[in-house]
Amino acid sequence: xxxxAQSSDPIQVPQTDPIRVVTATxxxxxxxxxxxxxxxxxxxxxSSVANPGIAQEPPLPQQTETxxxxxxxxxxxxxxxxxxxxxxxxxxxxxxxxxxxxxxxxSQPVDESLDTGVAQTATAxxxxxxxxxxxxxxxxxxxxxxxxTYSTVVEALKDSGAITQEEANQVLxxxxxxxxxxxxxxxxxxxxxxxxxxxxxxxxHRIPFVKISEYGxxxxxxxxxPEGVAKNYNMLPLSFDKENNSLIxxxxxxxxxxxxxxxxxxxxxxxxxxxxMPSEIERKIAENYSQSLSSEVTAALEQxxxxxxxxxxxxxxxxxxxxxIRQAPITKIVQxxxxxxxxxxxxxxxxxxxxxxxxxxYRIDGILVEKLILPRSVHEAVVSRIKILSGLKIDEKRVPQxxxxxxxxxxxxxxxxxxxxxTIHGEKIVMRxxxxxASVPALEELGLTGVALSRVKDAIKVPHGIVLVTGPTGxxxxxxxxxxxxxxxxxxxxxxxxxxxVEYQMAGINQxxxxxxAGLSFxxxxxxxxxxDPNIIMVGEIRDSETAELxxxxxxxxHLVFSTLHTSSAAGAIPRLLDMGAEPFLLASxxxxxxxxxxxxKINEEYKEEYKPEPAVIADIKKVLGAKLDDWLKxxxxxxxxxxxxxxxxxDRPQTEPEYKGRVAIFEVMPVSEPIGKLILERKPATEMEKxxxxxxxxxxxxxGYMKALEGLTTIExxxxxxEI
Length: 725
What we know:
The chain is an alpha/beta fold. The protein contains 29 helices and 22 strands. Helices cover 38% and strands 20% of the residues. Strand 8 (346-353) and strand 9 form a beta hairpin. The chain is globular, with a radius of gyration of 29 Å.
């Protein structure tokens, strides 16, 4: 199976929408960090380092100064994060306190026909900050006339294009004849989606609409409203503004003033309600409260240190040793963040500062998911800790830096590549996780099948030539090359690789990591390789004309060369090399095969269902696959394309189960045949080469993706997401 953590592309989440990240951990599981050596002289001489738990660093010119957390606060945060990480990664809902029996006044929803001015006074305030993209103001809803006052949801839906005039008329007739509300009729007849209905209500009542899946969760907000109250009133806390003593919540019915009044009494805060989809509210209440920070952590977050406390602690910085820094509470926070990434199969961790908070996002199966929000006051401490582990200069904040360190957790080990980048709010950290003990997948496990698989196997048996794998960053090119090398690795051949970085460590292969600072580049390394008597050479990437020329010369002198290029198609590799200055006659005689690839997420095998696709989808499948669809239908014993059944994730799956789990690659494989070689000599465009290759049986990536969708591995939507070029 395709291992996302080993691809250049980051990974997958239980849900593609941001969820809250902390729950209880197994006390038997310990985490150990293998650190870069810490020079105590550097620590003692750097005023900005000190104890990472209280580090106070001078801001960039545009950066606002923020208070730092005290050691006591950091210790509370770290202990709770460590305590909560295990069950979060497992997405468990065990041990959830049921507050559904909280005594509360009977909810008496306000009639939707009430004057919207009342609702506006109570709820229709605009949220600000980092979540504005998830909020739609009533006047900004698609198709809505901002100068028009809408009296019914039917009118708003019709103007937005969600329903036709005939459907609107039918709803009005049913309303009169049955006495049911417009919303009930629209839901029964399924004229509009849940999101369209919520948006229409927001337009009518002039209350903002929030898409919860795109709104990062604030751990402090969850503790302001008990779980029982949230469930009873379908009210999800989203964001807590301590300065303005307000709380933004998502509600099915923001006009329910009795619910808002009760929540205000319970929390002591001003409630700002937004419309949201009811299904999202219910799911996120169950999910977030089961994975929320404990009350002790929230208390610690609220009690971030005063500037005076930080300054008092800073007086003793010179007396701190490297060991003291390693034992600081901030260590637990960093360990918890990384340990969760390993459990969630993340390939990247993003730690991003904003003006008021720091968010932690994980790339899971190629999709970035917001999992944690930390107080802004601990950001500098977290960055300092990671820099110490990575052997970076902790007092250098003006330029990007790169480093790496090892991390052990629960018997597993990962190598983390660390990159820092100065932004206007502080330094952003991105960590790429590379599993050291990961096994190399076989070619079949990657997703190669049929003619494509046989052509790749034939090409790698040839003792000389060039095989190129192309695609954008994160498309799994390096993983494919490792699989190829694993297939042909025997004691009889000398295999040498030049990589940046070495992602898999493979027995029997001489792997070299480039080091530009020391003068070891792809070009210089390849030149040295030729004096090492190699049979097979892998170059991580052909980036310039010198590397391209050396690779071609190596292939012509009897070596089998593998490498990657950044092009969108297999045929596109040829014009790219010609642009680099490669001679057409050398390419025609040295190129053996080019292949392009992308990675798509696989449907969660345990929770998928068959469904009958729309006629437009079947027509698109016919258009894309052509005669290949007829062969597939015959193989499956189907009489016509109208009998096709596709697969999708179940909607009624458990809330802790993701829609997609794991990934698989889709390919197009183009052998460089004699006719294609003639086109190279004539410098013909890639499109002409593709026509020849297609006539010779090549499947395009989109076609390969559609075939995998027909087999139930993925969805048409997922294929179009990556392969619509």
